[in-house]
Amino acid sequence: MVRILLIVVFILSTSGVIRCARANDDDGHGFVRSLDPKLLSLKEEKLSHFRIYWHDITSGSNATSISVVRPSNISATGFGIINVIDDPLTLGPKLSSKLVGRAQGFYALSSQEELGLLMSMNFAFTEGKYNGSTITVLGRNPVFHKVREMPVIGGSGLFRFARGYVQARTHTLNMKTGDAIVEYNCYVLHY
Ligand SMILES: *[C@@H]1O[C@H](CO)[C@@H](O)[C@H](O)[C@H]1NC(C)=O
Ligand SMILES: *[C@@H]1O[C@H](CO)[C@@H](O)[C@H](O)[C@H]1NC(C)=O
Ligand SMILES: *[C@@H]1O[C@H](CO)[C@@H](O)[C@H](O)[C@H]1NC(C)=O
């Protein structure tokens, strides 16, 4: 009786071993493993909202936004221009209000029909417990539309696993210099 049991256990365990080996072969040499989310202290996902003002200063000696690509023949929509930005993010619409971070990245004028930007930027926060954390915004920004919605595609630090969206509304736009202050309402799911 004991011997039969041992044989059954042996057969089960060897077939198990064979299955594991085959699974490892199939899933790309076994370099990926699943992890218990608790090991990364991931608990409840939460939704955060914050409103910040984005200052794009293209003029003067302290410009925070500079053109790095300018086509030789610039069309009415500026198609082809690319600006690199390091724009202050403040709590109020005034540049002198509390600085909470900077929007770093670039935008490309990528529409031939209207003034439409491809935005690719990280909001790098410097305030309080968010200091050092970032969210990444990547999306389409037709600047003369009242509300422009762009996806939040990720984040770091306290914003790990972030996803969500931002809504941008122009607060002021200086048509002479191109300087702009834009209100960003950010809705972000993260842990
Ligand atoms: C540029 O920044 C410097 C240092 O913050 C400041 O002293 C100066 O007034 C600024 N210039 C302009 C034109 O804003
Ligand atoms: C520049 O653009 C204008 C209008 O878009 C066009 O009429 C003109 O031929 C262009 N010039 C060159 C050199 O491509
Ligand atoms: C944010 O963190 C950096 C580096 O850790 C530090 O130098 C800086 O003083 C911090 N800023 C604020 C506002 O706490």
Q: Could you give the topology of this structure?
A:
Blueprint: H1 2-26, E1 46-56, E2 65-69, E3 82-90, E4 99-109, E5 116-125, E6 134-142, E7 148-156, E8 163-173, E9 180-190
Antiparallel strand pairs: 1-3, 1-9, 2-3, 3-4, 4-5, 5-6, 6-7, 7-8, 8-9
The structure holds 2-acetamido-2-deoxy-beta-D-glucopyranose (3 copies).
Organism: Hibiscus trionum (Flower of an hour)
Main location: secreted
Subunit structure: Homodimer.
What keywords describe this structure?
binds 2-acetamido-2-deoxy-beta-D-glucopyranose, 8-stranded antiparallel beta barrel, about 190 residues, globular, 1 helix, AOC barrel-like, single chain
Report what the structure shows.
- By secondary structure, the chain is mainly beta.
- The model is unreliable at 8-12 and 16-25 (pLDDT under 50).
- The chain has one helix at 2-26; strands at residues 46-56, 65-69, 82-90, 99-109, 116-125, 134-142, 148-156, 163-173, 180-190.
- It has a single domain (43-190), classed as AOC barrel-like.
- It contains 1 helix and 9 strands, in the order αβββββββββ.
- Strands 1-3-4-5-6-7-8-9 form an 8-stranded antiparallel β-barrel.
- The protein is globular and about 90 Å long.
- Bound molecules: 2-acetamido-2-deoxy-beta-D-glucopyranose (3 copies).
- The site of one 2-acetamido-2-deoxy-beta-D-glucopyranose has 3 residues, from loops.
